[in-house]
Amino acid sequence: MSNQIEVRHLRYFMAVSEHLNFRRAAEALHISQPGLSRQIGRLEYHLGTPLLRRNRREVVLTPAGQYLREQLQPQLNRLEHIYRQTLQIGEGRSGEIRIGFLGSAMQEVIPRMLLDLKKTFPEWHSSLEERSNLAQVKGLMEEELDLGFVRLSQLPAELDSCPVVRETFSVVLPQSHPLSRKGTPAIDQLREESFILFSPEYSPDYYRTVLSICEDAGFHPRVAHKSVHAHTIFKLVESGLGVAIIPSSLQQGFDLSVRCLELSAIRQRAVLSAVWKKGQHPRALEYCIGWLKGLKA
């Protein structure tokens, strides 16, 4: 790469590629629009190829521009992380572990891991961000996250994982539902019910597993509502709009008029896995990975 290209040129390009609008990109960068256009022109000149096609109506990435964006994103995220780590070391802190998670991971696994990390590496700290399964995978691939907690069985080859929680499912019923007063129902007793499920885009493995639970009982569930939030699912059940099947740990922390009944007799289990990018890691992150592998879920 030409030594005339600076990191700021790449950041400017990333802003334009995100907004596909020079005015909005310039506002986000707090520079003038003509100045931004000149810097993008210099970048294209030094690379020897156009990165953007622009006219009065739109800005689009060329194939070269699309490739550059895809390759730059994780590298710039890594650089930003290095800057933050450098600042933290200068302030007497040794670093940060960036963790993505699903809500159910906060019930036990993450708090226990962080307490253990604090005892062993007191100078390290962590940042937590609740994200969907696929958003965590994207964050790990683009090096926005160091560690994730997902309910996925298929992951990109660049990622590694280990199961940390293997738990039962529970059926969620309104408290007024006749089956809520009769102990754990047989799954085939739910065949006429409307189901409220996590969206397959949020958790495709969970969605397929719930379908298989019903199909083992001889019916395909009638899905009335989908959501990406556990609280929304519980509220819909509480309102009498359907029943739900959830990983049993999700029932903790909600004070709603629903009844959760464990389905311990079925073969399916809900699996929560820790996931990270392959390669070398800081000692504190390696410690966390070893700790998680030791759970032997």
Note the topology.
Blueprint (H helix, E strand, L loop, with lengths): L6 H13 L2 H8 L3 H15 L4 E3 L4 E3 L1 H28 L4 E7 L7 H12 L3 E7 L2 H9 L6 E3 L8 E9 L1 E6 L19 E5 L5 H13 L5 E6 L2 H9 L5 E4 L10 E5 L7 E8 L5 H11 L4
Parallel strand pairs: 3-4, 8-9
Antiparallel strand pairs: 1-2, 5-12, 6-12, 7-10, 7-11
Helix pairs in contact: 1-2, 1-3, 1-4, 2-3
Describe this structure in words.
The protein is built from nine helices and twelve strands. Strand 1 and strand 2 form a beta hairpin. The protein is of the alpha+beta class and 297 residues long. It folds into three domains: 7-75, Arc Repressor Mutant, subunit A (Orthogonal Bundle), CATH 1.10.10.10; 97-158 and 275-293, D-Maltodextrin-Binding Protein, domain 2 (3-Layer(aba) Sandwich), CATH 3.40.190.10; 169-268, D-Maltodextrin-Binding Protein, domain 2 (3-Layer(aba) Sandwich). It has helices at 7-19, 22-29, 33-47, 63-90, 109-120, 133-141, 204-216, 230-238, 283-293, and strands at residues 52-54, 59-61, 95-101, 124-130, 148-150, 159-167, 169-174, 194-198, 222-227, 244-247, 258-262, 270-277. The model has no long low-confidence stretch (mean pLDDT 88). The relative contact order is 0.13. The chain starts with 6 loop residues before the first helix and ends with a helix. The strands form five sheets. It has a three-stranded antiparallel sheet with strand order 5-12-6, sandwiched between helices. The longest helix has 28 residues, at 63-90. It is globular.
